[in-house]
Every structure is written in structure tokens, then in C-alpha cells.
Specification:
The structure is a homodimer of 340-residue chains. Helices cover 22% and strands 25% of the residues of chain A. In chain A, strands 3, 4, 5, 6, 7, 14 and 15 form a seven-stranded mixed sheet that branches. In chain A, strands 10-9-8-11-12-13 form a six-stranded parallel sheet, sandwiched between helices. In chain A, strands 1-2 form a two-stranded antiparallel ribbon. The two termini of chain A are 15 Å apart. Chains A and B meet through helix 5, helix 6 and strand 13 of A and helix 5, helix 6 and strand 13 of B.
């Protein structure tokens, strides 16, 4: 086998929306494995909005990347060599290895064996990976959604949002409304079984449109967008309402201190609201059980999945940049190597 | 007995900080009681910052008062007449009767019999009333404070804040820091047993001073002030930190939309923060048990109480206005009638 590999590294920390100049492709030599390390060949990478928070300094769950470091991201790989008793050559795995043709897993951190091939392998870094698990634990652990409640999901055509809305329906929500941009995305939201889709590009008064879509208001806001969206929805939340801070894609490219602020905070007391953020790795111990339940919902057709496919490491920067320009539509998966 | 009584009513809804012109004293006739009604003679009234939210339109847990309606507030009363089997003539009660020399309790709503006279009667609308219960349930139900955690309390010289800090110490908090304005208030905060008091008037960089007062940060922010304070503290919260939205005294007089915004929301994901508001009447079923426990802490000296006393219904507007000018210091109690 070859002992060199290519990877995408940080070339220059961006100040706003990342550009092609943010990234650089490098050739690197692959090391000999130490104890507990595993070498994987990447089959699929994903473009994750959360990666943005590591490209420049700011509040994040992890420190910012240095110039020259591999860009963060999830991938599906095949184990080529293993010095780790938990993984064998030929195993298919999902891991947080970054944008690279090969990954050396250090022995600790997130790497999960994919238990079966009944579903597309890419799902393990999509609907059964971080986006899907974020939807699952955001609704179950954070929002503690109850049957009969009303749910609003923002960025509802995206992989977290579309999954969240479908899980909410499966949990017995009385009404699930999704916000998305443009007729095509709204059509997909409706097709995914949401009770209503609101096009934020078509409705100049978004708050009024959201109220019309659920005249009794909302018990849960599952938000993937950020402050301006949350602030507009707060007045529509019912007593005891919960805001799940799942993502802040509209705010990631805004420097700290310049983000739009939450001003409708009087409702936190008046309506007894609760707002809570999550990083899904806190729920790692529950992934297997959740993946089994959610996998069954996918196999039964209750949860539909939409992916956008790209090919080759060279496609990664554009696939990622498109997450912040409204171009993304479903989970963005980049095929980097052939399936075994 | 007299069949007329005086009360303070809304004369003109204020646009900013209330003034004397906001209020008017009226003489009213007392009605004959209908079934389940109770007539009380007021001994003590309290000046409550939460009353501000009912003086003009905006997000509140209750609709705004109309011009001519009695100003909302809590009082201690003696039952003069009763058409309600739960209350007898001579009972001492705490109720939400408003700023009035006599109150006709309608038969439903908040009216609680005061079970003993071992503590000053005014405590039942102070440390054992809404402010104290807000502190209690804010820490126990909302923050779910655990022993060993670090707590920051704002407006710490006030009746909610001072009680919250002392309850936190009694619950085994490792460090309890209070924010107050001026040396005299900070001296009282220290005397109340807080580990440190930070004077926001003396420290131009409040965030740095708060970090110095607890170098490991804070697990719980018990906030009585509002958005600007919360936004400054968010970066100091530890992973899993909780913000109790107890009061927003700095924001009550700002029209909706003009409040300072919360901008440091990236930390909600990065630090897995939770922010939740409370209206203590949701915890009414737990008042008796909490009052018994907290009463014991007061009798033992573990919780100290500070009151400011005023006399006569005429003193109510100034006592209330002072809550928003930084003049208040401890619970503001207005004696309206003599104790039996």
C-alpha cells in the first residue's frame, strides 16, 4: 500500500464566511502505528457546519485549529492496519478523523464500529452520526418533548433539522413546523412529513407566518440558525417552552460581540422558558441504542434521508463553504474512496 | 368598622422609570362579601420590582393593569370578615392583595394563613414570601444546585439575592459571590456570609472582577438584573452552567426591543449552558415545606434578613420607585396598619 496520503489543512483562518483560500491540500507521509493506533482509509467525509467554530478563535467546545492542521470533520473509513484490540483490519468505522484520505486514529476519542450494512454507509456520518444524534438527543434529553406538543424546527431542510422534525412526529408531536429557504427546500420539508413548511425567503413577516402555521404557538423550538431566529420565535413559545440550541449557522461567521442579540428575554420569566445548548458527544454512551431505534425508523420509511453527494477531497472546500451560503440541501457527503 | 378604605391605583402607565405621577390614592367603598370572599385589614405591604411589568404593556406573566386598577403587590393582613370556610376572623394571612388598606380576597388565588408568630409578620411577604421562595425554588428546582458548586448572585444586597446567597451556602456551595452597588451594600453581602462581594460601581471591568472572585468560574448564575449582566457573566460559566432568570430589574423600564441583547450565546453550545426563568407561583404547592425549612435557617441565624421600613400608604410610590434607582437595600416593607 502507499505510505503517503492527502489531507486538507487550514491555510488561513477566515474572518467571515470561509473561502477556498482558507484551505490547502497537502501530501503527508503515513507513520508506522504505535500501540492502540488504527490506520483507516477514508470512504466518505462530511461537511459539518460545526467545523466553522474551529477555524478561528471564539467560544467553542474545542480549541481553534492552527494553520497547517487537518480540518476537523467526520468520516467513514475502512480499517487498513490496527494496533488496537477493539478494531480489526477490514472493519468499517465512523470516526472524527478530519478531511483526509487516510486517518491515524490515536486510540482514544470517537471511533465507532459500523454494526451492519443494511443502510448506506454514509448514513453513519449523517442521520446516524452527529446530525441525527443531535436531533435525537436534542429532542429527547434536552427538550424532553412530550406527545401532543408543538415543535418548530429551523433550518428544517438540513440534516439535523429534517431528522429532528421526523423524530418529533414519531414521538407523537401534535404539530411540527419547519422553516427553510426557498420553495424546493420547503417541498422536501413537506415530503419529510412536517405538518407545515414556512419559507423565510417568501415571508417578510416570519413571526406572523410561524404563528399562522401553529396558531397555538410552540412548546419546543429546535434551532439550528442562531440569535435573530430565536429572538423572533421567543414570543410564540408557550408557557414552559424549551429552546434547544443545536446550531448557530447564521452566527458562526460573525465575530463575537457583533452577533445579533437576544432581546425578548422578558418572556423567559413571563413564559417560564428554558434555553439549553448541546454538544452531542455528551450523549456518546447512548449512541448505539439511539442508532438502533432511529435506524429502524429509517428502514420502516418513517424517517426519510436526503444527501448531496460530492466526489474527491478537492470538492471538500466548496461543499463546506456552501453550508453558509444557503446552497446546502440535505447532508453533504463527499466520497473520498471506493467502498470495499 | 369603617366601610370605606384607601388604595393606590394606576394613574398613568409609565414609559420608563415610574414616577409619583404614575400613581394616585383613591378612597373606595368596601362591598358586602359574597360567598368565599374574605375581607382583610392590611398590616404590611411590600414594594416588589415584578410589579413594574404590570404597569405598562409587554411580556409578563399577567396582563397589564388598566388605569384606575389597584397596584399589584403582596401584603400581610388580618381577617376582619370571612365568607370562606378556610379563613376565620382574626387569622393573619399573606396575600397578593395590592397596595390597599383593605383587601377583598375573591376566594381563589394566593392567600396563605400565617402559621405562627415566632418570626416578624413582615417576613411572610419577604424572606418567607415571594422573594425568599424565588431564591429557594430558583436554586433548588431551576438551578438544581449541588454541593461543591460555585454560585454568582447579582443584586445580592436585595431580598431575593441576599436570601439566594445564604441558601446556597446552606446547600453546601463551595463558593458564593455576590454583586452589589456600593460599599455599604457590599458590606451587608459580606455580613450575610457570601464568600466575596463585588462592587459593580467600583470595578470598571466587572467580568474580570467576577473572575478574580472565583478563578474557576461559576456553575450557577442567579440573576436578578437582566441581559447586560447575564451577557457579561456567560463567558465565566463552567461547562453545564445554569442561569436562573429570577428578575430583570435593569430591563423592566426599557421598552421591548430596546433592551441590551444577549450576544455571548455561542457559549450555550460550547459550554452546554441552560438558562431558565421562573415565576414562583408555579411552586405554590411547595411553599409550606420550604417556609418551614427556611424559617428554621432564619431562627438558627444561618440566614440573615434585612428590611427597610416605611410607614403609610402614601409612602408606597417612593418606596417602589427607589427599587429602580439603586436606592433599595433589603426588602422594602411599608407598614399600613397596626399589628393586632
Amino acid at each position: 500500500m502507499q505510505r503517503t496520503s492527502r489531507r486538507v489543512v487550514l491555510a488561513a483562518p477566515p474572518t467571515g464566511v470561509p473561502t477556498r483560500e482558507t484551505f490547502r491540500i497537502e501530501q503527508v507521509a503515513l507513520p508506522t502505528l504505535s500501540d492502540n493506533q488504527v490506520l483507516t482509509r477514508t470512504l466518505y467525509c462530511s461537511a459539518d457546519p460545526g467545523t466553522r467554530s474551529r477555524l478561528s478563535a471564539g467560544a467553542s467546545y474545542a480549541p481553534p485549529l492552527k494553520v497547517g492542521e487537518t480540518i476537523d470533520g467526520f468520516c467513514v473509513g475502512e480499517v487498513l492496519e490496527s494496533a488496537n484490540p477493539r478494531f480489526a483490519v477490514g472493519d468499517l468505522v465512523a470516526l472524527g478523523g478530519g478531511w483526509a484520505e487516510h486517518v491515524v486514529f490515536p486510540g482514544r476519542g470517537y471511533m465507532q464500529k459500523i454494526p451492519h450494512r443494511r443502510l448506506p454507509l454514509s448514513y453513519w456520518i449523517g442521520v446516524l452520526g452527529v446530525p441525527g444524534m443531535t436531533a435525537w438527543f436534542g429532542l429527547k434529553r434536552v427538550a424532553q418533548l412530550k406527545a401532543g406538543e408543538r415543535v418548530l424546527v429551523t433550518s428544517a431542510a438540513g440534516p439535523v433539522g429534517a431528522t429532528a422534525g421526523q423524530i418529533a412526529k414519531a414521538m407523537g408531536a401534535a404539530r411540527v413546523v419547519g422553516v427553510a429557504g426557498g420553495a424546493e427546500k420547503c417541498a422536501w420539508v413537506a415530503q419529510a412529513g412536517f405538518d407545515a413548511a414556512v419559507d423565510y425567503k417568501a415571508d417578510p413577516n416570519l413571526t406572523a407566518a410561524l404563528l399562522a402555521a401553529s396558531p397555538e404557538g410552540y412548546d419546543v423550538l429546535f434551532d439550528n440558525v442562531g440569535n435573530a431566529m430565536i429572538d423572533g420565535v421567543i414570543p410564540l413559545l408557550r408557557p414552559g417552552g424549551r429552546i434547544v440550541v443545536s446550531g448557530q449557522v447564521a452566527d458562526y461567521n460573525t465575530p463575537p460581540g457583533q452577533r445579533p442579540g437576544l432581546t425578548n428575554t422578558a418572556y423567559f420569566i413571563a413564559s417560564r422558558l428554558r434555553m439549553e445548548g448541546l454538544v452531542v458527544f455528551d450523549d456518546l454512551h447512548g449512541f448505539s441504542a439511539a442508532q438502533e431505534e432511529l435506524g429502524a425508523l429509517i428502514e420502516s420509511g418513517a424517517v426519510k434521508v436526503r444527501e448531496e453527494r460530492f466526489t474527491g477531497l478537492e470538492a471538500m472546500p466548496d461543499a463546506f463553504i456552501g453550508l453558509f451560503t444557503g446552497a446546502a440541501f440535505g447532508r453533504r457527503i463527499i466520497q473520498v474512496g471506493a467502498e470495499p
